[in-house]
């Protein structure tokens, strides 16, 4: 059973640019969630995808968007980057509908916006 | 005021000590409670998962939930230097899917 993987590990962008982060879910998982973790803070829920549809969203603006693919891999896209978007972006996968919904986190992508 | 409050620490203890980590919360709808451990530059790792009030034990770890006080705890017995990490509490209502609300984390240092 493979774990959750994310790419890239680190990324540096400038304000106003767009970025795409990628996540590969744990084998057999059908749900992926994305979280933003600012330095010294706990993760904050961005959104969740189940069966390729967004079905839950936290307090994040529309410039944060995502995709989930048939193989349950996922992307997080952020447009018009702002300095405050600098954070660790975490992807978590889970298997919903089989009696357990434990989320397993990837190692994260550290985004720096200059 | 944040929905979930957690003392950021750092908490420094000698090896072998019993560690107590705590979170308070304000949303009475929370029903599922989790503790995650996060090492530096890594993603959070699930340690304990409990539903509603009560205690749960797993090896050196014990999780307690007191919904009447809106207070949860994680106890670590016989703490080891390898336990040095940031501990995050997380919780969600019964109908929230995967939307976890996290505390800010407590940094723990266990000294040999």
Structure description:
The complex is a heterodimer of chains A (114) and B (112). With 114 residues, chain A is mostly beta strands. Chain A is 0% helix and 50% strand. Chain A is built from no helices and 11 strands. In chain A, strands 2, 4, 5, 6, 9, 10 and 11 form a 7-stranded mixed beta sheet that branches. Chain A is globular and about 40 Å long. Chain B is mostly beta strands and 112 residues long. Helices cover 0% and strands 56% of the residues of chain B. In chain B, strands 2, 4, 5, 9, 10 and 11 form a 6-stranded mixed beta sheet that branches. Chain B is globular and about 45 Å long. Classes of the chains: A mainly beta (114), B mainly beta (112). Chains A and B meet through strand 4, strand 5, strand 9 and strand 10 of A and strand 5 and strand 10 of B.
The counted number of beta strands of chain A is 11
The level of helicity of chain A is: under 10%
Distance between the termini of chain B: 37 Å
| Outline type of chain A | globular
Query: Describe the biggest sheet of chain A?
Result: 7 strands, mixed
Order of helices and strands of chain B: EEEEEEEEEEE
Helical amount among residues of chain B, as a percent range?
under 10%
Number of helices of chain A: 0
Strand content of chain B: over 45%
What fraction strand of chain A? over 45%
């Amino acid at each position: 059973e493979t774990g959750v993987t994310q790419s890239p590990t680190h990324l540096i962008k400038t304000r106003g640019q767009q970025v795409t982060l990628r996540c590969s879910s744990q084998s057999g998982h059908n749900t992926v969630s994305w979280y933003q973790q600012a330095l010294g803070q706990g993760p904050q829920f961005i959104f969740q995808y189940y069966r390729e549809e967004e079905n839950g969203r936290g307090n994040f603006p529309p410039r944060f968007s995502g995709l989930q693919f048939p193989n349950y891999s996922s992307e997080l896209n952020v447009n018009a980057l702002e300095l405050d978007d600098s954070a660790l972006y975490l992807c978590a996968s889970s298997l919903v509908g089989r009696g357990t919904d434990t989320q397993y986190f990837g190692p994260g992508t550290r985004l720096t916006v200059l | 005021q944040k929905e979930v409050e957690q003392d950021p620490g750092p908490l420094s203890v000698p090896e072998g000590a019993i560690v107590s980590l705590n979170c308070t919360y304000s949303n009475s709808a929370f029903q599922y409670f989790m503790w995650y451990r996060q090492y530096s530059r890594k993603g959070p790792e699930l340690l304990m998962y409990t539903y509603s009030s009560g205690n749960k034990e797993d090896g050196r770890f014990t999780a307690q939930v007191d919904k009447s006080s809106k207070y949860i705890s994680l106890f670590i017995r016989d703490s080891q230097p390898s336990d040095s990490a940031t501990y995050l509490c997380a919780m969600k209502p019964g109908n929230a899917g995967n939307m976890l609300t996290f505390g800010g984390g407590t940094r723990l240092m266990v000294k040999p």
